[in-house]
């Protein structure tokens, strides 16, 4: 059986080895007996949400984010359908910001998000960034710890109905204030954890492979 992986804007958003998430996921999927096919879905490409089993949406610089934003809006309906259908989506940093309402970049330019989720992102004073190692505790499974590396100027606040992906033990996470890190909805995860997250945290990668298996066995 073949599983299809989409790397959204993989040629534009791919900071700090984010592509390692795809490598780790594909590696575990092959160990679980699947063959893998990886497509980059970028500017002007259709996103056929029915085709994909795993979608990765990585981080990027402000400039690339502003280019992607203009194209992204055309793929909005298929991304919403993919998410609501329970598809597995991992969005890191810039990708995570773009799923929300808006993002104010380091020069105070507003970049509209896809507005699929309620979170919004503003910038920090004097172009300050949150940079460094981060350790968090899963919100879903309290015994699961995840580690990663964060590097973001944006600070994100979740909407009142949104649930965090994890809680910060060390580092900053969404905003350095409320201890929340990322968000989770159905099988969609948004997070600031570069690392790459799935390469550094085999427990999370395996959880996603289990979800993949369950979806395939339905
Ligand atoms: N440009 C965004 C920020 O600085 C995202 C950075 C990233 O994806 N690493 O907040």
From TrEMBL:
Task: Write the Enzyme Commission number(s) for this entry.
Answer: 6.3.5.13, 3.5.1.2
Where is the CobB/CobQ-like glutamine amidotransferase domain positioned along the sequence?
A: 4-201
Write out the similarity annotation. Belongs to the CobB/CobQ family. GatD subfamily.
Descriptive protein name:
Lipid II isoglutaminyl synthase (glutamine-hydrolyzing) subunit GatD
Question: What are the catalytic residues?
Answer: 93, 194
Question: Which pathway does the record list?
Answer: Cell wall biogenesis; peptidoglycan biosynthesis
Q: Which UniProt keywords apply?
A: Cell shape, Cell wall biogenesis/degradation, Glutamine amidotransferase, Hydrolase, Ligase, Peptidoglycan synthesis
| Phylogenetic placement of the source organism | Bacteria, Bacillati, Bacillota, Tissierellia, Tissierellales
Source organism per UniProt = Anaerococcus tetradius
Q: Give the record's subunit note.
A: Forms a heterodimer with MurT.
Name a single GO biological process. Answer: regulation of cell shape
Protein role: The lipid II isoglutaminyl synthase complex catalyzes the formation of alpha-D-isoglutamine in the cell wall lipid II stem peptide. The GatD subunit catalyzes the hydrolysis of glutamine to glutamate and ammonia. The resulting ammonia molecule is channeled to the active site of MurT.
InterPro entries referenced in this protein's UniProt entry, alphabetically = Class_I_gatase-like, CobQ_GATase1, GATase_3, Lipid_II_synth_GatD
Q: Which residues bind substrate per the record?
A: 129
Any GO MF annotation of the entry? glutaminase activity
* UniProt catalytic activity: L-glutamine + H2O = L-glutamate + NH4(+); beta-D-GlcNAc-(1->4)-Mur2Ac(oyl-L-Ala-gamma-D-Glu-L-Lys-D-Ala-D-Ala)-di-trans,octa-cis-undecaprenyl diphosphate + L-glutamine + ATP + H2O = beta-D-GlcNAc-(1->4)-Mur2Ac(oyl-L-Ala-D-isoglutaminyl-L-Lys-D-Ala-D-Ala)-di-trans,octa-cis-undecaprenyl diphosphate + L-glutamate + ADP + phosphate + H(+)
**The UniProt record lists the keyword Isomerase:** no
